[in-house]
Amino acid sequence: MKPFLAMPLDHLVINTRFETDRAADLFRALGFTLTPQGRHPMGSVNHLMVFQDDYLELIGLPTDGGKLREEVLNSPVGIDGLVFRSDDADRVHALLTAAGASLQPLHAFSRAVELDGETFEARFRTVRFESDQFEAGRIYFCQHLTPELIWREPWQTHANTVSGLAGLLVVSQQPEADALRYASVAGAEVSALGKHGEWRIDGARYSIVVTTLDEYLRRYGDLACDALGRSSFFGAIALRVQDPEAIKNALVPVTEGVRHRQVEGRSVVALPGLNSLLDFIDGNDSY
């Protein structure tokens, strides 16, 4: 029987803390188009890299003495957020609560978006787990009330030809147990063992892959992220690239803050200052 596909992926998050400007410059150098910096009323700033159906977010903290968002301040630099898409945040909150999940109150907020000299309010509603529920990072659901302010054509074209998110790699000392937990949250099943013994949760266009530290290090070696003492952490973001040569060309002039090489025929980029790893896969491949 075909397994249930995981609910849609909305975005993945890299926590830059107080280095958002430097991180944004680095991602631009890698061939990404970034949105102008946004500011949340909770005390965080962000840039998005918007793709066809999803996006990658750089989130950080203001450096002008403003309010600081605690959940960003209290999280380490690195890959920090797995965000599913929801069309009804109230329903998601009710279903998860009934299933016994430990959740924060439903959160509604907005941020200003300036377009062609006019200011608009991008509005969101989120369902977030309590911070101690998943050691690897923050997991939540996002309902977009104004998606037209996010998915705009000028922001969706990238010189490196990245077209979307292909997956997230979770490193765990208990991969089977963690995979079952992620599958439960995503409304899916753990489909099968992968070719290297990892556990997989598949969505329509992405996969969450849960693997051991040994397998993670075997694959990525010295490009791997630092676990920072955690028994589980987000180890890599996979991105679909339409032209593999484009990302290779983007990497040529970028030296500061980047290590990269070919891994299993793909361009893999380590960003040590951001404790993050990007795995660029062919647009037709699965992660």
Architecture blueprint of SSEs:
Blueprint: E1 9-17, H1 20-29, E2 38-40, E3 44-50, E4 55-60, H2 70-73, E5 78-85, H3 89-98, E6 107-115, E7 118-128, E8 138-144, E9 162-172, H4 175-186, E10 190-193, E11 199-202, E12 207-211, H5 213-220, E13 232-241, H6 244-251, E14 259-263, E15 266-271, E16 276-282
Parallel strand pairs: 1-4, 5-8, 9-12, 13-16
Antiparallel strand pairs: 1-5, 2-3, 3-4, 6-7, 7-8, 9-13, 10-11, 11-12, 14-15, 15-16
Treating each run of at least 4 consecutive H or I residues as one helix, how many helices? 6
| Order of helical and strand elements | EHEEEHEHEEEEHEEEHEHEEE
Mean pLDDT metric = 93
Order of strands across the main sheet: 2-3-4-1-5-8-7-6
Q: Strand pairing plus helix content: what structural class?
A: alpha+beta
Radius of gyration: 18 Å
Percent of residues in helices: 10-25%
Cα(first) to Cα(last) distance is 22 Å
- Note the overall shape: globular
Count of distinct strands: 16
Could you tell me the strand content as a percent range?
Answer: 35-45%
Descriptive account of the structure:
The protein is of the alpha+beta class and 287 residues long. Helix content is 18%, strand content 39%. The protein has helices at 20-29, 70-73, 89-98, 175-186, 213-220, 244-251, and strands at 9-17, 38-40, 44-50, 55-60, 78-85, 107-115, 118-128, 138-144, 162-172, 190-193, 199-202, 207-211, 232-241, 259-263, 266-271, 276-282. The strands form 2 sheets. Strands 2-3-4-1-5-8-7-6 form an 8-stranded mixed sheet. Strand 2 (38-40) and strand 3 form a beta hairpin. It is globular, with a radius of gyration of 18 Å. The model has no long low-confidence stretch (mean pLDDT 93).
